[in-house]
Design brief:
By secondary structure, the chain is α+β, with helices and mostly antiparallel strands. The protein contains three helices and eight strands. Bound molecules: zinc ion.
Length: 132
């Protein structure tokens, strides 16, 4: 079973915590042991797993990405959003999380973040829960 969630972003670059939505899909699936795939079908948005406890962490990740990969005019890609494509490739389009005892095996401080790099837009995240 694959489910799609819609994410509405409000800024050009932004991380949105989608952990609770992914957890809900896992519990609705009834699968006790398996893998949960989280896939973002976009070229200027990705998904990453990192600390969710202190919101300063993802702010630091985002500001560092923006510093390292500025939105400048000298890229070849005519659309003017090459920085967003590059940041997306660094974060990647998917994450796989192990499920045991019906629960995502995220570490204590881990959260799943949708990574917007060319918002604000309406985005999709596909979630597939597979049992053993
Ligand atoms: Zn583009």
């Amino acid at each position: 079973m694959t489910k799609t969630i819609n994410v509405k972003t409000r800024s050009r670059t932004e991380f949105i915590d989608i952990t609770s939505e992914v957890k809900r899909m896992v519990s609705e699936s009834g699968i006790k042991s398996g893998v949960c795939y989280v896939y973002v079908p976009h070229t200027t948005a990705g998904v990453t797993i990192n600390e969710g406890a202190d919101p300063a962490v993802v702010k630091d990740i985002l500001s560092t990405l923006n510093e390292l990969i500025p939105n400048k005019n000298s890229y070849l890609h005519m659309e003017g959003n090459s920085d967003a494509h590059i940041k997306t490739s660094l974060m990647g389009p998917s994450q796989a999380i192990i499920i045991e005892e019906g629960k995502l095996q995220l570490g204590t401080w881990q959260a799943i973040f949708f990574c917007e790099f060319d918002g604000a837009r309406s985005r999709k995240v596909m979630i597939k829960v597979m049992g053993n």
